Every structure is written in C-alpha cells, then in structure tokens.
C-alpha cells in the first residue's frame, strides 16, 4: 500500500500531465485518509481553481494555510483565489503574510500594490480617509513610482488636514508625472495653507510654463503673489487667468480682488462689470462691483451693488459685512449696525465686521460697546490693525493717553502704511509739546469742499499733497476746504473748518483736478468730499507752487526748532546736500521699492569735489546706514537736537525742503520736501530701469515711480 507521500506524488504527476480527473480523485482520497493535509489541500485547491471552481477551492487553501502557516506559497495562492472571488481585503492579507515570511517575494509584492490601492480607493470613496491614507502609504512603500497612489494619497491627506503630508505626496506625484497640473496645484494649495508661499509659487511655475493657458494655475499664482505683497505680479497673474478662460466669471472675481488689493479700483471695476455682462445674477460679481465702487468712492452706486448682492444671496455674511462697513464709512450708523449685526450672526468670527460695528457704536457715542467690539475683534485676530486703532481711539477718548499710544504703536508696527495710527499718535504727542492747534474757523457759507479721509489715507508726505492740492482747488473756485483734525493744524497753524454734514464722495480721478486748479468748479451745489492720494503728475499744480509752499510754513515752537536745526547744519558747511533713504515701511511690496545705497554713493562720488564746502545730511529712518557714508561725515537728525515727539520725522523733512542738493527716495515724503524747497539747485531721484539716480523736476512729473 502506497504512503501518503507516494500517493501525493502520483496525483501531482497526473495534475502536471493534465489528467485532471485522476489527480482530483487521488487528492480526494488522500484528504479522506488525512483530513486537512496541507500539501493535498493546497494542490486540491489549485486544481479546483484552475478548472474554474474558485469558490470550492478556497476552503482547501484555507486548510493548507491552517496546516502549514509558515509556507509563503500557500498564502500566495490563497490570495490569488481570494482575489479571483473579489475578496480584495483577504487577498491583500494573504500577500502581506507572504511578504512577512519572504520579504523578497516579487510576485506577492507585485500583486499586493494594486490590491491595496483598490482597498484605498474603496476607503476613500466611503469617506474613511484615515484608512485610505494608510493604505496609500503602504502602496508607495511597495511601489514608490506609483503615480495614482501618490496623487490620491495627497488628496486623502488634504481631506484629513495633514497639510505637510499632502504637500509631500502631491510634490511626489508632480515629479512622477511633470505634466500632471492637478498635482502641482494641489501641492501649491497645501503649501499656501502652511504659509510656505515661495514654495507654493515654485510648485506652480512649471505648470504655467507647461500650459500657459491653464487659468486655474494663474488664478492660484494671483492669490500667492498677493500673499507676498507683490501686487503688480498678482494683477498680472489674475489677468492671465481671465485671458485663459474669458468666460469663467470666478476668475474675473479673483482678478477684481487682486486689483483691489493692488489699489487699482478702476480695473477692478472693469473686471466686475465684464463678469456681470456674462452672469448678471452672480452675487460674487455684484459684491466685487460694490467693493470697487466703494474704493472709487461712488458710495451710492456701491450701496446699490451690495444691496443687489444681498438680494441674490440672502443672509450672505460677506455681502452684509461689506455693505455694513460701507454704511459705517458713509455715516449711516443705524443702517450699518443692522447690517453688521446680521453679518456677525452668520459669521461671528469676522474681526473686520466687529471693528466696523465698534466704529458705528463710537459714532453714536457708545464707547463701552465700541470697546467690547474691539476686544472681540482682537480676540479673534490678535494684532488686527483696525482693531488696535479702534481700541486706541476708545482709550484716547477716555483720557487714557498712555494706553492709547501703546495701541497706536502696535497698529503702526502691524500696518506701517496705514495713516490712521501714524496720525493719531502724532497729534496726541504734539498736543503735549506745542499745545492745541488753532481752533477751527467757523464755516463761511461758501460752497464746501471736504477731505474727510485726511490723516487716514497716507502718511505725512501724502497728507501734504492731499491738503495742498485741495486747498488750492478750493481757493481757485471760491470754495472752503473742510478737514478733520490732522498734523497740519499743529505744525503749520492751519485752521480750516471741520467737516460738516457728509458730502457726496468723489475720487480724485473723477473730480478733474487740473480743471479745478484752473478755476472750473465741480458741478454740484453742495460740493464734494474728495478722496485720493494725489501722487500723479505735479505739472498742473506747478503754476500754484508759491501758494502750495506758503501753506506749509511752520509756526510757533515748531518753527523755532526748525530754524535751530537748519542753523546748526549751516554752520558746518556752505553747500547743504541732503539724501533721503527710506526703509522702515518700504520694501514690503513691489510698489514701494527701495533704491540701493550704492546709487547714492555713486552720485556723491561724482559731485562731492565740485561743491563748495559741502556738508551731507542723511534723512533716514535707518540711522545705521550712516556707516555706508562715513567718508562724507553725514549729519543725522539726532545730531541737531531732540526730535519733536510724535513727528520725529519733521527735522528730516524740513532739512530736505531747505537743502541745496537733494537726492530723494521713491517716496512722497522726500518728493514733497523737494516741492517745498524754494532754492533747490539740483534734485535727483532713483530710476529703476537705469539703476542710478537721475535729475528730475519735482514740479513736472509723477510723485511716485513704477
């Protein structure tokens, strides 16, 4: 009688020779004699599977594994049958067992990766993202070049909020397939959320190079450039996005937003209107239109657009908040409060809306409620500049000057380009040194011209432009200018009436300044409240330069300090050379760019020996730069006496306005000083294209350069 081994050998010979019936009979007899025999169970299972009876084969393969769990082959073949029966999870488990027993088993590894990927996709589709992510990682451990696993793993990680993992896997997918734009966009999105803006931009560059007509990539670049303060580049990217997909109104919304941030409200207005011509029922586009109209101070039209946005999307927090903030600025306090409260009910985490509600409360005289709103805003967004300014204004009104100053200083540090904190700090400190400015004149009854944003839009040099332009315009047209409290009242003794009842707002580009300067008044019986920065061409104002200069004559203690500083400088030499190097709040974006000190040194090297006993004055907010100019023994403001508290910059501006040779920076501060200089022999400014200083006429050209 044959042994089990001999019988199994004979059966296997039949099996190999294709005598399936004989092999099956012998396998069956062996299993009757020795139930669960691992070898016979395994071979019977294989035979049944090979003859199309997979369901019947599986119990035999299970028995083989149970009888000899250390056999990689048994696990491998059981996995094959499980896979054929659609039992993917079981198959994957069998192949994992094979690899645990024999890590270099190529077939098991090859079969396991697609099975795990299928399980991952099933988990992903069912919402089990954590399981899916773990399975995708297992696939990549087996097959690092598996593109679908890398990309889908990135999507699972993104859904779980694992941004570092999402960025890594999306980057891997992009490297595996450089043409996969979705992978590059996913990596950029994750890196932007992580605050890795430069790396996000780097992820998108190959995508736009590969497909310049891909609007989505350009749209993402638009957002990223805005994050870096690269306003011009953001607008370019937004424009490319809109060109790539001219019928995509979402891209037009994004372009309008970029143009708003870049302080280009008119192009934003055009983008919103173009979008509305394609989709008149878009709430987002009406919102963008309202914001752009608000920026050009067409407040009534802005209100209509925002009201339309609200009707199209009732209860939308963004529309309610934007409309509420507009009403607050327009002095419609009750309407503003109603809209803002509705906006905050829908989205209580909006710090800007809390600030606007607080400002409305302050307008009503409710300082306690305004203070609570400021606290809410700062709790939501610590360091929010508008929240700090509101809190400072409340504390100043309550007589807590020290606390108010600390809040203003924090606001200036957080947003150095915003004029409000700068102006409030200056006026508060100036009062302590020079006392109150002259009392505002009573209105004369003339037609009114107002500049209610003076002191808020722009800092010192820009405020001089706003006031000077509009004061001359008012005088040329028999009108009376109204201004809020601002630095000029204390420095120059200006006593204009305070703003009366709100006037219709008008942007400088719409009011026709050259015509006003020629005495052709605006067609409006009650006048306008003009808003703008007045940094364009100074040529129209040139015929009135004497009046412009006369407006800004220091008075009282300010005049005494100014004279002492200039006298102290003149005793050091005969020819006064003044250079302005602005740093502090410059260089943060591509509009307010910084010229290298080398350009100024090159100019000095060429002119210094030609001057009669020259003395160099360095006007700067970065006194450490004096070391670069050591050979010229520069004088700084601190060398000429203690600065005026609140207007520590005034000595710099005054000396620039009295020097013989002036080299300005790309800043309205030094350009206005050059405009006020009555005996200027030479004026130079930085030219980015030529990479050097070039002569210029401060009364015939733009205040700021591109």
UniProtKB/TrEMBL annotation:
Gene3D superfamilies: 3.40.50.11350, Tetratricopeptide repeat domain. It holds the Pfam family TPR_16. It comes from the Bacteria. CDD domains: Fut1_Fut2_like. The keyword Transmembrane does not apply. Keywords: Repeat, TPR repeat. It comes from Azospirillum argentinense. TPR repeats lie at residues 113-146. The keyword Repeat applies. SUPFAM superfamilies: TPR-like. InterPro entries: O-mannosyl-transferase_TMTC (IPR052346), TPR-like_helical_dom_sf (IPR011990), TPR_rpt (IPR019734). SMART domains: TPR (SM00028). This is Tetratricopeptide repeat protein.
């Amino acid at each position: 009688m044959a042994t089990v081994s001999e019988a199994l050998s004979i059966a296997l010979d039949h099996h190999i020779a294709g005598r399936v019936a004989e092999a099956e009979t012998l396998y069956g007899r062996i299993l009757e004699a020795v139930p669960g025999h691992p070898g016979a169970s395994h071979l019977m299972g294989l035979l049944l599977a090979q003859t199309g009876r997979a369901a019947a084969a599986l119990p035999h393969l299970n028995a083989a594994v149970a009888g000899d769990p250390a056999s990689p082959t048994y696990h491998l073949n059981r996995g094959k049958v499980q896979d054929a029966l659609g039992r993917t999870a079981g198959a994957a488990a069998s192949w994992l067992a094979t690899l645990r027993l024999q890590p270099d088993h190529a077939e098991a590894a090859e079969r396991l990766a697609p099975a795990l990927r299928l399980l991952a996709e099933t988990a992903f589709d069912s919402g089990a993202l954590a399981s899916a992510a773990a399975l995708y990682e297992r696939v990549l451990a087996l097959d690092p070049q598996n593109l679908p696993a890398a990309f889908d793993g990135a999507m699972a990680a993104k859904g779980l909020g694992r941004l570092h993992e999402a960025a890594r896997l999306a980057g891997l997918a992009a490297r595996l397939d450089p043409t996969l734009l979705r992978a590059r966009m996913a990596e950029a999105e994750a890196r932007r959320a992580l605050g890795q803006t430069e790396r996000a931009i780097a992820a998108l560059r190959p995508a736009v190079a590969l497909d310049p007509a891909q609007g989505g990539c350009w749209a993402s670049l638009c957002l990223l450039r805005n994050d870096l303060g690269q306003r011009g580049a953001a607008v370019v990217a937004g424009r490319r996005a809109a060109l790539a997909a001219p019928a995509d109104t979402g891209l037009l919304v994004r372009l309008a937003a970029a143009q708003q941030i870049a302080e280009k409200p008119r192009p934003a207005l055009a983008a919103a209107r173009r979008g509305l011509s394609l989709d008149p029922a878009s709430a987002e586009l009406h919102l963008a239109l309202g914001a752009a109209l608000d920026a050009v101070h067409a407040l009534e039209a802005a209100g209509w657009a925002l009201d339309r946005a609200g009707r199209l999307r009732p209860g939308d927090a963004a529309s309610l908040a934007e409309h509420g903030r507009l009403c607050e600025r327009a002095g419609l306090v009750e309407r503003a409060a109603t809209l803002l409260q509705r906006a905050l009910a829908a989205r209580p985490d909006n710090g800007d809306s809390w600030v606007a509600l607080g400002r409305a409360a302050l307008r009503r005289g409710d300082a306690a409620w305004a203070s609570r709103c400021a606290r809410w805003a700062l709790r939501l967004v610590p360091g929010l500049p508008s929240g700090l300014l509101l809190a400072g204004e409340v504390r100043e009104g309550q007589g807590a000057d020290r606390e108010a100053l600390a809040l203003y200083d924090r606001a200036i540090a957080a947003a150095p380009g915003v004029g409000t904190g700068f102006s409030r700090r200056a006026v508060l400190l100036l009062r302590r040194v020079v006392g109150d400015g002259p009392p505002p004149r009573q209105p004369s009854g003339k037609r009114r011209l107002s500049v209610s944003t003076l002191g808020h839009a722009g800092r010192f040099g820009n405020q001089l432009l706003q006031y000077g332009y509009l004061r001359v315009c008012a005088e040329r047209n028999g009108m009376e200018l109204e201004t809020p409290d601002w630095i000029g009242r204390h420095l120059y003794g200006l006593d204009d009436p305070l703003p009366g009842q709100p006037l219709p707002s008008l942007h400088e580009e719409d009011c026709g300044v050259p015509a006003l300067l020629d005495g052709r008044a605006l067609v409006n019986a009650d006048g306008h409240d003009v808003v703008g920065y007045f940094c364009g061409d100074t040529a129209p104002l040139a015929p009135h330069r004497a009046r412009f200069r006369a407006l800004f004559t220091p008075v009282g203690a300010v005049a005494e300090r100014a004279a002492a500083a200039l006298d102290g400088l003149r005793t050091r030499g005969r020819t006064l050379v003044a250079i302005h190097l602005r740093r502090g709040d410059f260089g943060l974006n591509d509009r307010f760019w910084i010229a290298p000190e080398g350009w100024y040194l090159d100019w000095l090297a060429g002119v210094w020996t030609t001057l009669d006993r020259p003395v160099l004055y360095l006007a700067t907010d970065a006194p450490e730069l004096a070391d670069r100019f050591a050979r010229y023994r520069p004088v700084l403001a601190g060398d000429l006496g203690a600065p005026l508290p609140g207007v520590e910059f005034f000595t710099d501006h005054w000396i620039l306005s009295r020097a013989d040779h002036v080299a300005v920076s790309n800043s309205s501060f030094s350009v206005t000083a050059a405009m006020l200089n009555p005996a200027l022999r030479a004026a130079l400014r930085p030219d980015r294209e030529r990479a050097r200083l070039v002569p210029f006429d401060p009364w015939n050209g733009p205040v700021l350069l591109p």
